[in-house]
């Protein structure tokens, strides 16, 4: 894989390819549904990758084990299906809702909260919704159909959302450039695409993850402490409640156990912190993920790394930890993809720091 949908910042994805992305993902979801795996964990644009031919593909780690238990979903409430907010459960129709948010990303080129997008749709403000980088180079008729489909997917009542087969049928009609290879639409030759794999030196954390050196990863995470958590929460008056004090004490005890390599105890304390559900910490998820790896629980490690990404979508560490867990699960191709995504995000962060 060569990169995810929202990380191809060097170019504008042209309209026909956006329609192809929507169609291919709908086909993938319909296939999963046919195979008896209708629940896909936290479907979003970061799950859409491009393969060696430039074709869009849906990453397989949305189908991890506990995505089937109906309880796992993103911590970003603005994009969470209403039924999950009501009763904490995910159903097949929840995946359709999430597909609607992906359609919004394809239309606008950025994350727009569904409620805001629906207001724009009802106001028939199509031009305001569309990605300005397209510079008007899209079919208004096709865009209207995609907007309508997104609106159906985002219906409050699950039963009013379309089926995966309806998605496929609707989007199949919009594939007007089926004969044009995806890499041509991306304006990247296969040779150039192969050469686009980052050759940059890996950071110490990326290098440790590529070697699956858990001891080195542990040392780096201990040294990093919570420096990347500052953007994910702000404490309020709740900080002074007993519940908050107990939660922070649990995290402190978890940190002590983590530092001392008592990983079972660290898991117990970190789980206490997470289960209170007042404060979301990607660092805690990353640390618990590593604890699971030391305990030979690769499935649990992957799910925690995914939760770290949900809490902090452009955090390289979350991608690196997913890479290690995927390697342990013998999913080497996906592991390599995640390592590259993490390296690309880390390089982007470093460029931003130099520019400022």
From TrEMBL:
Q: Which controlled-vocabulary keywords does the entry list?
A: Kinase, Transferase
Superkingdom of source: Eukaryota
Q: Can you say what this protein is called?
A: Serine/threonine-protein kinase BSK1
């Amino acid at each position: 894989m060569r990169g995810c949908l929202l990380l191809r910042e060097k170019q504008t994805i042209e309209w026909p390819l956006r329609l192809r992305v929507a169609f291919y993902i709908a086909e993938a979801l319909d296939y999963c549904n046919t195979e008896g795996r209708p629940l896909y964990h936290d479907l979003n644009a970061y799950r859409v990758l491009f393969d060696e031919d430039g074709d869009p593909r849906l990453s397989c780690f949305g189908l991890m084990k506990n995505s089937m238990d109906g309880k796992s979903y993103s911590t970003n409430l603005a994009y969470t299906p209403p039924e999950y907010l009501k009763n904490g459960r995910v159903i097949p129709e929840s995946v359709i809702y999430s597909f609607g948010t992906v359609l919004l990303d394809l239309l606008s080129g950025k994350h727009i909260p569904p409620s805001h997008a629906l207001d724009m749709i009802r106001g028939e403000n199509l031009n305001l919704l569309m990605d300005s980088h397209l510079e008007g180079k899209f079919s208004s008729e096709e865009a209207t159909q995609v907007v309508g489909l997104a609106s159906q997917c985002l219906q409050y009542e699950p039963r009013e959302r379309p089926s995966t087969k309806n998605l496929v049928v609707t989007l199949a009609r919009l594939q007007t450039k089926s004969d044009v290879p995806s890499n041509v639409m991306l304006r990247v030759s296969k040779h150039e695409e192969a050469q686009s794999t980052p050759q940059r030196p890996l950071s110490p954390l990326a290098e440790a993850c590529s070697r699956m050196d858990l001891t080195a990863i542990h040392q780096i995470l201990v040294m990093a402490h919570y420096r990347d958590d500052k953007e994910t929460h702000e404490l309020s008056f709740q900080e002074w409640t007993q519940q908050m004090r107990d939660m922070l004490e649990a995290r402190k005890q978890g940190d002590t156990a983590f530092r001392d390599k008592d990983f079972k105890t660290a898991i117990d304390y970190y789980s206490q912190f997470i289960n209170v559900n007042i404060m979301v910490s990607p660092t805690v998820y990353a640390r618990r993920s590593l604890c699971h790896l030391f305990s030979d629980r690769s499935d649990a490690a992957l799910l925690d790394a995914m939760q770290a990404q949900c809490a902090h979508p452009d955090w390289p560490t979350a991608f690196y930890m997913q890479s290690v867990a995927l390697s342990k699960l013998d999913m080497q191709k996906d592991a390599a993809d995640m390592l590259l995504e993490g390296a690309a995000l880390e390089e982007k962060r470093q460029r931003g720091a130099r520019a400022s």
